[in-house]
């Protein structure tokens, strides 16, 4: 499985082409739209979410509610494009291009690095593609992967662990209840007291023209033992998931299981003891390693966290330098959120879903959904008897 996305933040649309899905996989456009809608929610979101109402158009690879095995093409319209037609024109418009040229890079964005790399004197050619608007396309791809996982009995949940200096108290809940609580919370937090304080902090940051980051957690249950591999660095599933998380715009760190806490503990406090009984087969007494050993799944839930920095577009601008005049200035403001952590949690869920689904189709025959389900069933039975 692989996918490719294309499109700019203020262009006409975002496009996703997905290749490698099994044929005859149940496909619901409504489930893709549901994930896109979740991405647009969350306390602290900016004005763009009032303009766009993301829904997907399915242009290929699906017929009568099932995938055909051919590439699936998805399109998400940018409704705001009508106001940007001249600025984003395909044809040369010298006067408009010069008038709207961006020569002032914003700290924390891709503007300056991308302009130097691709030799752009107008940094809009960088910021349009580097924008987090691109994550809508990745959420659409992840939403398709989730449908594959759901058919295989694999479920995913995500929630916000912290925003700013506020951290939620850990809770031990069934996955379904985690989902319900997160969906009911404006900041996707499972701790009602922390939720109130997070909202207060977001309001405070907005008044000050500032932004907040945080930590999100994704949990995947029902994963079979042995997805990924120990034999090559690029086949380790935990490494792929880590790359997927850090590839999300504004994410700067990732940990699996207890993560960095492991550095402060003794080995006896870190590793998960192996147990066996007739009804469950092999299982771990704890899950400190977040469902992974040796780059492969253990059968315990995958637990991964991502660290999102505060969005760098501030209403109290940071200092920068004009690339033409080399004069200092205060960075310009494009529309921004004061906190996008709850929305980023949805993005994280879906990029993790993609990597797990990809690993599943690598391990099992997957030309058709029936083949995948049959092989998965036999493999689970063998693992239980091992």
From TrEMBL:
Pfam families: Chorismate_synt (PF01264). InterPro entries: Chorismate_synth, Chorismate_synth_AroC_sf, Chorismate_synthase_CS. GO terms for cellular component: cytosol. It comes from the Bacteria. GO terms for biological process: amino acid biosynthetic process; aromatic amino acid family biosynthetic process; chorismate biosynthetic process. Coiled coil: none annotated. Its EC number is 4.2.3.5. Pathway: Metabolic intermediate biosynthesis; chorismate biosynthesis; chorismate from D-erythrose 4-phosphate and phosphoenolpyruvate: step 7/7. It catalyses: 5-O-(1-carboxyvinyl)-3-phosphoshikimate = chorismate + phosphate. Keywords: Amino-acid biosynthesis, Aromatic amino acid biosynthesis, FAD, Flavoprotein, FMN, Lyase, NADP. Homotetramer. PANTHER family: CHORISMATE SYNTHASE. This reaction introduces a second double bond into the aromatic ring system. This is Chorismate synthase. The gene is aroC1.
